[in-house]
Amino acid sequence: MAEAKQQQQPPQTALAASGAWKTVKPFVNGGxxxxxATCVIQPIDMVKVKIQLGEGSAxxxxxxxxxxxxxxxxxxxxxxxxxxQATYTTARLGSFRVLTNKAVxxxxxxxxxxxxxxxxxxxxxxxxxxxxxxxxxALIRMQADSTLPAAQxxxxxxxxxxxxxxxxxxGVLALWKGAGPTVARAMSLNxxxxxxxxxxxxxxxxxxxxxEMSTMLGASAVSxxxxxxxxxxxxxxxxxxxxxxxxxxxxxxxTGSLDCAMKTLKSGGPFKxxxxxxxxxxxxAPHVMMTWIFLSQIQKAEKRVGL
Length: 307
Prior knowledge:
Layout: H1 2-52, H2 58-69, H3 78-106, H4 114-144, H5 159-170, H6 179-207, H7 212-243, H8 257-268, H9 277-304
Helix pairs in contact: 1-3, 1-9, 3-4, 4-5, 4-6, 6-7, 7-8, 7-9
């Protein structure tokens, strides 16, 4: 009898393991695809941040970075970028797929309307931002450090050192400084990115009969554009709030994200929020495309090995 029980346990264990993997699979795949995409996009992201901080055009920033720090300067903050993807993208893509699957089940397996996809994207973006905000703050500060006077530079060695220093110098809650605009940006970006991707896949594949690769590339391009257009104003405000320094009297230039948005609107008009849009779009769209491509390849590999 004991031997019979032992023989029955492996299938049960395998079933439990399979169920656990099915639960975490969307999160693992999302995080892995985001981290791979970040390794490719990091140089463009560095240029984008410096343009937003007022260092000049894309060409001028690129030449200055090469002259002062070489190729390695384009990868400053990569550890924070990878940590951000491991938290933010893992949470947002995983939760989006889980929530979408639940909604499709409740809709009797029928495709969801665009409005419902957008709401799920907003929710997934908020969830991801809450997890990714500390790493995002460390990333922004590491990328902006070279623009500060030597006496004001924080000189974080890596993402974990940056987070440690923020906690030690400013307290745990400081890790979520600028979390308001971070969450708003994430919600707007994911609404544009995730909803438009699923909608484009349905249009290209199901209605126009496009092939697998054409569908993926076309939907990714549409997804990247809408992610950029929806999120840049929030990204601009978030960057300004997270990198601000107090003056000699200890006063910060902005009291918060809303104050930053109003002062920016007053001084530069609505188009000020779209400073660096071409570079931002070039950075966001390829990252979105590569995230979807890597995700697709990971899923294919899993199917081949039976996961």
